[in-house]
Amino acid sequence: MALIEEFDKTGNTLFRYRSYIPVVMYALAVLVLYFDQQNFILANDLSASLICFAVSVLGMFIRFLVIGFVPKATSGRNTREQVAETVNTKGIYSLVRHPLYLGNFFMWLGIILYVGNVWFTICSCLLYWLYYERIMFAEEFFMRQKFGEAYTHWAAKVPAFWPKLGGWIDPEMDFSIRNILKREYSGFLATVVSFLFLNVIKNYFESGTWQLNYFWVYFTVAAAVLTLILKTLKKAGKLEVTGR
């Protein structure tokens, strides 16, 4: 098998199983916290934890810039195969080719930073790059085959992962908060739950007892209620947007 075909095959396999990454990361985080109980962010250090959460919020904001503008059948959460009905070249796609993965990176970076281990942070960033580099290769291979010159012309001017400064092109579609609410509530809840989970583990390894930080408990409950409301509205068709 030619190397280009092997990269494409591997990338598509990793694409299908990318939703299992959190399970692996949680397990590794617990191991790191077990062996490094002197991490540089304590469980009850609310200021530091909020800074980490702000990094994750930056990732959410990047995703919102994508989801708020994109049309239907693009930039989705599909896991079975690559899907695209058009080449997105405007909005944040005029600055970076894979903005969703950039957003995911910062969402995960905030959680990883909260673990409080420098080497875990460095290794996690490297693993994220190696994993998603294959996925990005497979996606671009698919897009190049499907759209040809229309894709290669855009890709030649826009960086793959780190956005260029300047050159923003206004999207053709209006910004839709409703589309964000319809598609992004699960990611928000998962991020909040991740911080609560790590906070509980940190408390246990630091004090030897199971303790709950009430800030993260209340925040998680609020996020869960919001998620339930949005999920109900979605099922009732109240968050549908024409062409999204």
Order of helices and strands: HHHHHHHH
Distance between the first and last residues' Cα: 39 Å
Strand content: under 5%
Instruction: Compute the CA-based radius of gyration.
Output: 19 Å
Give the number of DSSP strands.
0
Mean pLDDT: 88
Poorly predicted parts: none
Helix content: 55-70%
Individual helix count? 8
The dominant shape is: globular
Class computed from helices, strands and strand pairing: mainly alpha
Described by its quaternary structure, the protein is: single chain
Largest sheet: none
Description:
The protein has 244 residues and is mostly helical. Helix 3 (46-67) runs antiparallel to helix 7 (177-207), helix 4 packs parallel to helix 7 (177-207) and helix 7 packs antiparallel against helix 8 (214-235). Helices cover 65% and strands 0% of the residues. The protein has eight helices and no strands. The two termini are 39 Å apart. The protein has helices at 3-16, 21-35, 46-67, 99-115, 118-147, 149-155, 177-207, 214-235. The radius of gyration is 19 Å and the shape is globular. The mean pLDDT is 88.
